[in-house]
Amino acid sequence: MNRIFQTSALLLAMVLLAATALAGDENFSMPKDMSRLLPAQADGVLGIASMEKLDALWRDILPEGMDEEEASLLPFFAEALLGFEDMIDPGKPLLITTRILSAMDTQGILFTLILPIKNDDQDFSQVEGFEEFLIIREGDYIGVSTDPDWQPTSETPLWAKELRDGVLTASLDLESVVETYRPLIEMGLGAMESQAQNGTGMGEINSVEETMATVKMLRALLESVAGLEIILDEDGNSIRKELVFSTKPGSPLAPGPQPSFDEALNLTRFLPGGENLLVVSALDQSAQMELWAESYLATVHSEMETLDSATGERYAQWSTEYLNTMEINFLPAAMTLRVEKDNSSFQHLLRSNNVQEDWKQLVHLADGLHDLGNGVDLAKIDTQDV
Questions:
Q1: SS3 for 278?
Q2: Judging by beta carbons within 10 Å of its beta carbon (0-12, 13-18, 19+), is residue 328 exposed, middle or buried?
Q3: What is the Cα–Cα distance from 114 to 48, expressed in whole angstroms?
Q4: What is the pLDDT of residues 190-249, one digit of tens each?
Q5: Cα–Cα distance list, 178 to 14, 115, 172, 175, 226 (Å)
Q6: DSSP secondary-structure letter at 4?
Q7: Residue 324: which of 374, 364, 372 has the closest Cα?
Q8: Single pTM value for the model
Q9: How many CB atoms within 10 Å of residue 322?
Q10: Which of 82, 198, 310, 347 is most buried when burial is the number of CB atoms within 10 A of its CB?
């Protein structure tokens, strides 16, 4: 059933589209007829406010100069809606949901599409493979499913209550996906470890240290993931985008307590203004960096082998010092970039509780980078307290 694979490709493509991706906290708007066809379980969901709205937004995103056919999403959808593309109303919302089966199940992923119908007299039997689908009609909507166990739920399921609003909104239960495919994933990770030890496969490219660090990071990711939300929306004359990766509380990649954004925002008072780019951040990624540090050092050690011993030792020492000062990067910060005709200037302010010590570390790190002799020249300038 090649149309099922086309729908799978559609879901992936729309996720990648929105991942260039801010939307509000409202829920995705569902007409009553649509809400009466919702499946109880959905591991993945793609909601579209209407094909007309998405097509218009897509045209705004694409570069100018593309011809009419290339700039439209409608032909792409025509190959992906299980043969019902000519029957849907392009001005109404639609949903595509997936249910992921056991990794050993040959069916893999089951789809349920909830589509708005143009006319009351649509002849669904004209759709290729019609007899393979379970079809239920509710007013102006039909539910089309490859899931033989699908029955519309009488109550609004949790996944529908949590689906956020947008011209395009997508969610994926990553925890469920990992749980389903964890045995297969572990087989792959085990093969990576074995290849590293034997010098085959990835072991021919990466060192044992690099591969083991990568496997460790991947396992931490598997233990941490909870869900993924992607939203593409419009707000007046601007396009709003959001990508939310959620983690399980207490997991290796859980963000933990975060610094004050107000403190970071307050730093902008001390910046000169007139910048081309302003960035304000208050994000502590210490937990994530602890996992990344091992992989970073493994890569450094591998690259050291291509250098003479003295240069390699300098790089290794500087890299270790860089990691030891990493917590400074997670202080509340405000940054500006100003681009002029002949030069550009960058200013970076940090909110520190130990200014003298943090400043000494940063200066030492900058001096070390200068002394590496890798083409980076840093000139010392007079400094002043803010």
A1: strand
A2: middle
A3: 11
A4: 888 888 777 766 655 677 888 888 888 899 999 999 999 999 998 777 888 899 989 999
A5: 21, 29, 11, 5, 9
A6: H
A7: 364
A8: 0.72
A9: 16
A10: 82
What is the Cα–Cα distance from 147 to 111, expressed in whole angstroms? Answer: 6
Per-residue b or e along 5-36, where b marks 16 or more CB atoms closer than 10 Å to that residue's CB: ebbbebbeebbebbeebebeeeebebeebbbb
Strand, helix or coil at 153?
coil
Give the type of residue at 102. Answer: S
How confident is the model over 248-261, as pLDDT tens digits?
A: 998 988 888 888 89
User: How far apart, in whole angstroms, are the C-alpha atoms of residue 61 and residue 32?
Assistant: 31
What six digits make up the tokens of 294? 């091992």
Query: Which of 340, 315, 308, 41 is CA-nearest to residue 176?
Result: 41
Q: How many Cβ atoms from other residues are within 10 Å of residue 287's Cβ?
A: 17
Q: Token match 């570390």: residue?
A: 361
Structure tokens at 262: 């107000």
Half-sphere exposure of 181 (CA within 13 A, CB side): 12
Report in angstroms the alpha-carbon separations of 200 from 11, 75, 195, 204, 299.
Answer: 35, 45, 5, 5, 18
Tell me how far apart the alpha carbons of residues 96 and 136 are, in angstroms, rounded to a whole number: 15
Find out whether 150 and 135 touch, Cβ atoms under 8 Å: no
Cα–Cα distance, 93 to 98 (Å, whole number): 17
Sign of the CA dihedral with 307 first, then 312, 318, and 319 last: positive
